[in-house]
Amino acid sequence: MDQEKNTRYLYRAISGISEDFSGRLLEVPVGTGVLTMLVYKTLPNSDITCLDYSIDMMEKAQHRAKGLELNNVKFMQGDVRKLPFADENFDLVISLNGFHAFPDKEAAYSETFRVLKFGGIFCGCFYIQGENRRTDWFIKHLYTPKGFFTPPFETLDSLRKRLESLHKQVELEAVESIVCFTCKK
């Protein structure tokens, strides 16, 4: 992916976060926080929870947040298959490059939907199959055997159908093999 496409996918993936967002936000998985901590710096009135299964990844995100003096961001170790939150608890749920790695995608979709408030936004991005043969080859022969990605993988059509069955508004854009989405519950 060239720089222009990379910038487009990153911008599109977080486009569900309004500039004046001041509600409750859940990011799952947070990973190292490289894509979101600078965005969170611009949201001082938000209550942000970052969750990840990997303690090592989360510690890197915590280090980033500390360096940016983010006081409105808290971190939790946890599993997307069983989120430790009440129903309809968040105004926004964001997932960047996570769903292609989750071993139980059905539970991940169900749980992120469950904790999202009615009228809330679900946005993010992840790998989808069938948009770029070279990327599909790398995923199949390198990333899946190493355990970085876990099948089954969505296609653009299967994801559209899945998200439209859950949310009342769905916007999708494929940038190479990454799908960016913004949905309203």
Distance between the termini: 31 Å
- Helix share of residues? 25-40%
Strand content: 25-35%
Number of helical segments?
A: 6
Runs with pLDDT <50, length 5+? none
Note the run of SSEs as H and E. HEHEHEEHEHHEE
Record the strand order, biggest sheet. 3-2-1-4-5-7-6
**Radius of gyration using CA atoms only:** 16 Å
Calculate the mean pLDDT score and round it.
Answer: 95
What does this structure look like?
- The chain is an alpha/beta fold and 185 residues long.
- The protein has six helices and seven strands; from the N terminus they run H-E-H-E-H-E-E-H-E-H-H-E-E.
- The protein has helices at residues 3-13, 37-41, 55-67, 105-115, 133-143, 156-166, and strands spanning 24-27, 47-52, 73-77, 90-96, 116-127, 169-175, 178-184.
- Strands 3-2-1-4-5-7-6 form a seven-stranded mixed beta sheet, sandwiched between helices.
- Strand 4, helix 4 and strand 5 (116-127) form a beta-alpha-beta unit.
- The relative contact order is 0.17.
Can you summarize this structure?
The protein contains six helices and seven strands; from the N terminus they run αβαβαββαβααββ. By secondary structure, the chain is of the alpha/beta class.
